[in-house]
Amino acid sequence: MRIANCKSGERTFIGLEYEGKMLNFSKALIMYSALYENSIKNFHNIDELLYMDNLYSYIEKILNFILEHEFSYFLTEESFTFLPPILRPQKILALGKNYVEHAKELGDEAPKEPIFFCKSSSALIGHEDFIVYPSFLTRVDPEVELGVIIKKRGKYIKEEDAYHYILGYTVVNDVTARDMQTEDFKKTNPWFRSKSFDTFCPVGPYLVLKEDIKDPHNLNIELRVDGEVRQKNNTKNTLFKIPQIISYISKHLTLEAGDIIATGTPSGIAPIYPENTVECIVENVGTLRNKVIKENSL
């Protein structure tokens, strides 16, 4: 089941993909709750669903209600844009060097324990938004990654309990100012700035609920620039698997509902330039597409 944050004009709504159509789940939820729950649930974005128990079965119930009453024809949104699947994450965390070949192409050995870092939430953009290339940067690289979205607060999470803290999966492009990052590495400085320029974290377009991804460690992952394949791998080749990642991070800091974790990128990094179109593809999750533009072209 794929859901998304969407916008049509000034309206924002939760979209539910069904047979290639985008249904207005927010409108359906108002109708269903008014008829069957003696209340009105008026949710405009996925962030507001994070603490809902049994979300998957609840969405299934709403979808069956739509189909049973043949409401899909007037709940279908014909014109809309995608917003990031989480609008206000407290944290965007990412794994470094989580594929052996990527560590090698950076000139490093495979890490012995997970390496994680933070990207600014102000870097967040959605599907089809522009990646803005600052004029003073000399090399910018896209990085395709499987993203994990956390559904509830957790600290010292055991590996065997990790999936209880996952809402679902998305696609992340960990855009990086590579020359700046390399220079910061040499000076043993943090590389937060190279990861956190505005627009350097496209995410989406969908959030796929975890119940529909039976094995997140067997998904083909690919990045294309103007149709040319740059990165291609499978999530089975990650060094540290999702339960290890969640458990490790939660030892150091508390995970919160809506936090986004990018699980690492494979080898094949290469620069992009203004006018390029970047597509990040994760099997069964979606295709995230963004065009690159010059900073002064807005």
Short description:
The protein is α+β, with helices and mostly antiparallel strands and 298 residues long.
How many distinct domains?
2
Which sequence of SSEs, written as H and E, runs from N to C?
EEEHHHEEHEEEEEEEHHEEEEHEEE
Q: What is the level-2 CATH architecture name of the largest domain?
A: Alpha-Beta Complex
Proportion in helices: 10-25%
Q: How much is the average pLDDT? A: 94
Number of strands: 19
User: In the CATH scheme, what's the topology name of the largest domain?
Assistant: Fumarylacetoacetate hydrolase, domain 2
- Rg computed from alpha carbons, rounded to a whole number of angstroms: 19 Å
Distance between the termini: 35 Å
> What's the CATH superfamily of the largest domain, by name?
Fumarylacetoacetase-like, C-terminal domain
Q: Just give the CATH class of the largest domain.
A: Alpha Beta
Major sheet characteristics: 10 strands, mixed
